[in-house]
Every structure is written in structure tokens, then in C-alpha cells.
Amino acid sequence: MQVVIAGGHGKIGLRLAALLAGRGDVVTGVVRNPDHRPDLERAGATAAVLDLEAARADELAAVLAGADAVVFAAGAGPGSGVARKDTVDRAAALLLADAARIAGVRRYLLVSSTGVDEPAAPDRGEVWAAYIAAKKAAEDAIRAADHLDWTILRPGSLTDDPGVGRVLLAPPPVPRGSVTRDDTAAVLVALLDAPGSAGKVLELREGESDVHEAVAGVS
Questions:
Q1: How do residues 57-112 score in pLDDT, each as one tens digit?
Q2: 22-37: b or e for each residue (b if 16 or more CB lie within 10 Å)?
């Protein structure tokens, strides 16, 4: 499989790249900073240096040429303000969808967030509210894109603990909880192998099911 990961240097993106490359897939990670190229290469991927906040859809489509699937795992990250929640978490996800249309790539996995179906808690502040609004807007746009075979994954609170390979994967609503980035990446790999998961919005938490069993159960 040939996969392009937007947000290739993120904590999920790097884990996903290593898992895919480790089984022989061809992986390209889109990164803004050329200094991140060595990290992608150590993970077994190729880096494509492109700023998703400034690139045109046709420029990104050139990176997607020949790909079987794309994964949006980018995010403005901690410390970013309201404006970048929109330009990365929403607009860049839509840019990837537009580029996929140009390149003829149908399979699209969007890493979203739990909590997007609920109003943001006022005590979380305006940046959190902007983040949730951006993720929700991205989801709505991707779900409306009839040129995509999309799957939306909503992880719970993400941790850097070692993965355990056992998760809860189900349509919303699901109780709040956490999940490791390792297991999130493993679920993304399994979703790429499961075309029957297209058209599904899925919440992800720590749980009792083996990753592949969990994905099979929703496909």
C-alpha cells in the first residue's frame, strides 16, 4: 500500500509511518520543517516538505500521485492560538481532501477528537473551543465529500504510555476515556486494511478488544 500522512512528524504520524513501513508499505510524511526529514527517514518513510497552511491543492496533489490512501494526522499543536486551530485542524484537512480529489485518491482517514458533538466547556477557554469547532467543521466537510471513502477516528485523551493492543472502538456516543498513541496508530493501520470501515465515525478508547477484532467489528 502507498500511504501519504499529513502531519507526518506528529506523535501519531511518526508511529503510523513506522508501523506501515515496517510491514513493507510505501509511506510519505508531509512535514513543514525540513529539519524533520531525518526523523521520517528513521521511521522508514520519505518526507515531503510542504506547508499545509500555505500550499495549493495541486501542489499537495503532486505528493499524493499514486497513493492508495491518505491520513490526516496533522494538528496545530499545544501553544497554538485560535487562528491556527482553523488553518491547520480545519483548513488543512479540507486541503488534503481537495488534493485527494485531484490525485484520484478515494481512501481518507481523518484523525479527529472526541467531544466534537458537544459544546465546548466554557472553562476550557477560547483556544479549546476553537479546536473543537475546527475539528467538527473538518468532520462535516469530509463527510459531505462524495469523492472520498472516508473514516473518521475520534481518539480519547491521548497518552504516550506503551500500547497494549486492546481497545474500545465504536460509533458515538462512547464514555470519555484515554488511549495511547501507539494503539491509535495501530488502529489506523487496521482501518486502512478494512474498506468496510469507510463511511464510519468511530470513537477510540482503551478497552478489552484486540485491535484487529475491534476494527473487524465495526467494518
A1: 999 999 999 999 999 999 988 778 999 999 999 999 999 999 999 999 999 999 99
A2: eeebbbbbbbbeeebb
Residue 9 cell numbers, joined = 512528524
Rounded to whole angstroms, the Cα distance separating 84 from 90 reads: 9
Cβ proximity of 167 and 187 under 8 Å = yes
- Among 47, 131, 191, 204, the active-site one is 131
Tell which residue, 114, 105, 199, 102, has the closest CA to residue 150.
199
| pTM tops 0.85 | yes
Contact of 1 with 191, CB cutoff 8 Å = no
Q: Which three cell numbers stand for residue 205?
A: 478508547
For residues 128 and 131, give the distance between their C-alpha atoms in angstroms, rounded to a whole number: 5
Secondary element (H or E) of residue 109:
strand 107-111
Task: Provide CB contacts within 8 A for 106, sequence distance 6+.
Answer: 100, 147, 148, 149
Is the Cβ–Cβ distance between 74 and 35 less than 8 Å? no
Active site residue 108: no
